[in-house]
Amino acid sequence: MLAVRLSEELEKRLDQLSKETHRSKSYYVKRALEEFLQDREDYLLALARYEKVEQGERTYSMQEIESLIASKNDKH
Fold first, then answer.
1. pLDDT surpassing 80 at residue 57
2. How far, in whole angstroms, is CA 9 from its chain's centroid?
3. Distance of alpha carbon 34 from alpha carbon 37, whole angstroms
4. Which of 7, 10, 20, 38 has a C-alpha 20 to 30 A away from that of 61?
5. By C-alpha distance, which of 57, 35, 60 is closest to 48?
6. 6 with 14: CB under 8 angstroms?
7. Is 55 helix (H, G, I), strand (E, B) or coil?
8. Backbone φ, ψ for residue 24 (5° rounding)
9. pLDDT band, residue 75 (cuts 50/70/90)
10. d(CA 32, CA 35)
11. Residue 56 pLDDT class (50, 70, 90 cuts)
């Protein structure tokens, strides 16, 4: 269980949305948090990959990937 304090304005907006859509406030808070966490995790993953590329890690073009996949499929 988690308790969160919202500003008065945010609470009003959440109340209004909840009433208009007949969904609970918890539903919207959970959805917003899930979306935020996914976005943040994606950002951190992209940043980590960028740093590896900056350190010289090999990258592949789409054409190289397609060729690798095609050659593996030809072997089967």
1. yes
2. 26
3. 5
4. 38
5. 57
6. yes
7. coil
8. -75, 155
9. confident
10. 5
11. very high
